[in-house]
Amino acid sequence: MFAKVLVANRGEIALRVIRACRELGVASVAVYSEADARAPHVREADEAVLLGPAPSSESYLRGDAIIAAAKRVGAEAVHPGYGFLSEREWFARAVRDAGLVFVGPPAEAIAAMGSKTAARELAIAAGTPVVPGTTTALRDAAEAEDVAERFGYPVLLKAAAGGGGKGMRVVHRREDLAPALASAQREARNAFGDDAVYVEKYIVGPRHVEIQVLGDHHGTMLHLGERECSVQRRHQKMIEEAPSVAVSPELRARMGAAAVAAARAAGYTNAGTCEFLLDSDGAFYFLEMNTRIQVEHPVTELVTGIDLVQWQLRIAAGERLPFAQETITPRGWAIECRITSEDPANGFLPSTGQVQYLHVPAGPGVRWDGGIETGSEITLHYDPMLAKLIAWAPDRAQAIARMHRALLELTIEGVDTSRDFHLRVMEDSEFRDGAIEIQWLERRLADLTAAPPPPDGVLRAAIAAVLLAERERKTRRVTPRSDAHAGAASEVATPWLQVARREGLR
Ligand code: ADP
Question: Is 264 exposed, middle or buried (0-12, 13-18, 19+ CB in 10 A)?
Fold first, then answer.
């Protein structure tokens, strides 16, 4: 095992890697921007190196500075986390060229899966089904129209270099195709510096089901089952779970084999994820491969008992995977809610400010992977995901109940968060029935983000009574009433009665 690893990330995933290092007896080195000088990941690491000013382009994306820091402190490996430099082929290569180990797949595998069009070609060659569409970038709108006629509308324009739902446009009619192509190309150029856009058939009503794979340097490639990530807004995941209500052991084995075949075809090692769309009759289509640890990895860890981040480090250090595929089966159910600094009641507008108070849920089956604490400043420089709340229980209904309970315990003061939205989802009967697909949330967004219903009358009366009693105690003006007024006065003065009347309970 390595003696020292540099963690090239921030927030919850940096802490996650630092924790894995500590459990393995590996010293960790954090990197940070000026804005993160007091961040938890900086404090928890054994050492920390300042990279530069707050903007990512001057700090967390400075591959050269990160590699120089790793050399200077004597780290042997670099863990990139997710986002930032994690899927940049040049970074993986530069780390290797500097004589360090990149904790992830080889640069060549990142390149092979880095473009969605190249990944589609590779999957087709490996016999993995893909969504009908092109495997090369569109030349112009005329070509897009020809292809769309062939597959039928609706179609989906996608940036070949895409990620995070950027550069994607659903097109329902021919006349909308040319303007949608131009805007997808513009967005792709701005986001990825590459305006290649291709077209896929837009599949209506599928689930997003992805397969976690893990491969070592000794020829073993395993899959760790599926995660269902259908609860999405604007093609971005909000809630993930493992396993999926839609996946039988037989389907799991088939999807797992398809993922392993695609990963092998790319010369893949370390942890990765093959994303699929699964339609209602059990047909599945490869979308892309994410060549890094994913945000939602904890749900797989909780149902398989396999520590993915530790295994990333062990594999990178040359260890063999000791598991047999048949022994990896999901046990119980895990759900993850992404806690973001966004206001669901206000179109998920990003919210900034200082976390004035944080109370983290605990108790049986609850895991908090967070990057914030009381006093943390939430800025627009970085991703709005503050933390992940994960719950495990023996079955899905109990996992939902446990998540609901944990969300009720969670208190974050100072910034708006997605907490109340998640509470509404956990209370929703369609979600509880598992009747979800990738367009489900968009359809239900209005009722799931409406202001939360006020607590029922009795609860309100109790709250009002406590508040009033507290005020009375503070002002110490509790004067005994004469018997003559007792009846009328108590009717007026008793807070229980006041609120009860307003609530129509009396
Ligand atoms: P990104 O890399 O930007 O996240 P993906 O290819 O992973 O893009 O797709 C993101 C999401 O968009 C998927 O999870 C799914 O919900 C939706 N999506 C992608 N391709 C299709 C398709 N062909 N039909 C319908 N929905 C799709």
Answer: middle
Q: How confident is the model at residue 463 (pLDDT cuts 50, 70, 90)?
A: confident
How remote is the CA of residue 165 from the centroid of ligand 1, in Å? 7
CB atoms within 10 A of CB 61: 18
**In 114-220, beta strands by DSSP E:** 155-159, 169-171, 197-201, 207-215
441 Cα: distance to centroid of ligand 1 (angstroms): 14
| Best probe residue, ligand 1, of 277, 280, 294, 439 (max atoms within 8 Å of C-beta) | 277
The catalytic residue among 10, 292, 338, 367 is 292
Rounded average pLDDT over 327-344? 98
- The reply to whether 277 and 354 lie within a common domain is no
Q: From the alpha carbon of 167, which atom of ligand 1 is closest?
A: 3
Omega prior to 53 cis, within 30 of 0: no
Q: Is 93 a catalytic residue?
A: no
**How much distance in Å is there from the Cα of 367 to the middle of ligand 1?**
28
Could you give the C-alpha distances from 398 to 11, 211, 363, in angstroms and in order?
A: 29, 24, 14
Mean pLDDT is lowest, of 8-17, 429-438, 492-501, for 492-501
Output the domain CATH number for residue 184: 3.30.1490.20
Domain housing 163 = 132-201
Query: Is 303 a member of any domain?
Result: yes
Q: Name the domain count of the chain.
A: 5
Based on the fold, state whether residues 121 and 162 are members of the same structural domain: no
Residues 77 and 117 placed together within one structural domain of the fold: no
* Ligand 1: lining residues by beta carbon, under 6 Å: 131, 156, 162-166, 168, 200-203, 208, 232, 235, 275, 277, 287-288, 438
Please state the pTM of the whole predicted model: 0.88
CA distance 99 to 67: 10
Predicted confidence at residue 329, as pLDDT, reads 97
237: domain CATH number is 3.30.470.20
- The predicted pLDDT at position 476 comes to 61
- Could you tell me if 215 and 310 lie in one domain? yes
Among 280, 312, 331, the domain boundary falls at 331
